[in-house]
Amino acid sequence: MNGKMADRKVLRVLAGEAVWPPPVWLMRQAGRYLPEYRKLRAEAGNFISLCTTPGLATEVTLQPVRRYGFDAAILFSDILILPWAMGQSLRFAEGEGPRLSPIETEADLAALSAERLVPATEPVMETVSRVRAQLPDETTLIGFAGSPFTVACYMIDGRGGDFPRTRAMAYENPSLLTAVIELVTSATITYLSQQIEHGADCVMLFDSWAGMLPPDLFRAYVMHPTARIVETVTNAHPEVRIIGFPRLAGVMALPYAAETGISALALDTAADPALVAQLLEKPMALQGNLDPLLLRSGGEALRHAVERIARGMAGRPHIFNLGHGIVPETPPEHVADLVKWLRALEESPPDLISAP
Ligand code: 1CP
């Protein structure tokens, strides 16, 4: 075990060690539920400026780590910065979510340029370096990207929702969908490698919409590109672990875990972590999966769920997290309670409780 891994609990778990109590970070731990975030967000004016101004993005990344002492920071950015960096127009409409100029034809795709990616994401890499330099030594820095399929959904439909254009394109113009996904796959390899070279300790691939596809398309558009990213990135950076999050993929999470080469599987709210652990072909770290709406509600029910999830995974490599991102209405004190209740489990180690 190298020195870095000995200090950073999230990296120890990603390497297969069971740590008690499990280390914790939360998806969307930086964001609108925090007053200090809302203040900087207002100063930045628009969301893209917040992501691409290193002074602001560094501060926003560090805010939740300072407030709660999380075991990991996640780079503050967005999965849609990647298509934006290749030249696709993007804006975040107030209260409506992202809007992109949709890719409808081969010509729309040809207008994007992979060469723009590295210069356009320089401020993001500067943020990664600054965050790593300012984080406590024991805190893991997680870099990330969207998975090609999920990013393609926004690129083709131009907005969130249930992505009718992308799903139709899979049947009506598969060569264009494949070309979009190929461009995003190679750009993602470059983008993640750069984050690692600037100081990210591990990376996560967010496939929020993976669960919409039937199995054959899931293999082609989710598993295949993910496997290519994992193989290429880990060839260049063999020490780096990759967390995959095929949200709502159900039973398809099993072949995804077995065949893509990822080191850890992030679970959505619907999965039973201990059951997934039993079903996995080869043991691997699991991350998740408290319901973000229970975090919003708080109280005793939250405390019980935190303990149930942690104890259900006791003795196995587990990173505590949510099953999806924090919702903006979450009271910040509930997050403090979650961390406090989880860390209090140190007093009742897994060998003193009945085996899961
Ligand atoms: O107004 C604001 O302040 C913007 C809200 C916001 C934030 C805080 C957006 C717009 N993105 C982010 C940050 C973000 N997005 C992070 C930062 C790190 C952290 O977790 O703290 C990350 C990892 C993401 C990833 C992301 N963006 C995903 C994948 C995870 C998920 O939530 O499913 C997706 C799908 C997006 C797209 C996106 N960006 C923003 C919004 C509101 C959305 C969802 C749009 C939709 O489908 O309706």
Task: Annotate the secondary structure layout.
Blueprint: H1 3-7, H2 9-14, H3 35-44, H4 47-52, H5 54-68, E1 72-74, H6 81-85, E2 90-93, E3 97-100, H7 106-110, H8 117-120, H9 122-134, E4 140-146, H10 148-157, H11 164-172, H12 174-197, E5 202-207, H13 215-236, E6 242-246, H14 253-259, E7 264-266, H15 273-279, E8 285-290, H16 292-297, H17 300-312, E9 318-322, H18 332-343
Parallel strand pairs: 1-4, 4-5, 5-6, 6-7, 7-8, 8-9
Antiparallel strand pairs: 2-3
This protein binds coproporphyrinogen I.
Coproporphyrinogen I binds at residues 27-32, 41, 47, 74, 76, 78-80, 92, 97-98, 144, 146, 160, 206, 208, 325.
Give the key terms:
single chain; about 350 residues; alpha/beta; TIM Barrel; seven-stranded parallel β-sheet; two-stranded antiparallel sheet; 18 helices; 9 strands; globular; binds coproporphyrinogen I
Task: Explain what the structure shows.
This protein has 356 residues and is of the alpha/beta class. It has one domain: TIM Barrel (Alpha-Beta Barrel), CATH 3.20.20.210. 50% of the residues lie in helices and 12% in strands. It has a seven-stranded parallel β-sheet. Helix 10 crosses helix 11 and helix 17 packs across helix 18 (332-343). The relative contact order is 0.14. Coproporphyrinogen I (1CP) is lined by residues 27-32, 41, 47, 74, 76, 78-80, 92, 97-98, 144, 146, 160, 206, 208, 325.
